[in-house]
Amino acid sequence: MYAILDIETTGGQFNEEGITEIAIYRFDGHEVVDQFISLVNPEIPIQPFVVKLTGINNAMLRSAPKFFEVAKRIIEITQDCIIVAHNASFDYRILRTEFRRLGYAFDCKTLCTVELAKVLMPEQPSYSLGKLVRSLGIPMADRHRANGDALATVKLFKMLLDKDVEKIIVKDMVQSEIVKGLAPKLLDIVESVPSKTGVYYIHREDGSIIYIGKSKNIKKRINQHFTGTTNKCKKIQLEVFAVTYEETGSELIALLKESEEIKINQPIYNRSQRKSIFQWALYAEKDEQGYLNLLLQKADGRKKEITSFTTFQEGKNTLFRITAHYKLCQKLTGLYETKNHCFQYTIKECDGACIGNISPEEYNARVQEFIDKNVFENKTIVITDRGRTINERSAVLIENGIYKGYAFYDLNYQIRNIEILKNMLTPMENNRDTRTIIQSQIRRSRSVKLLYF
Question: Is 43 helix (H, G, I), strand (E, B) or coil?
Answer without folding.
Answer: coil
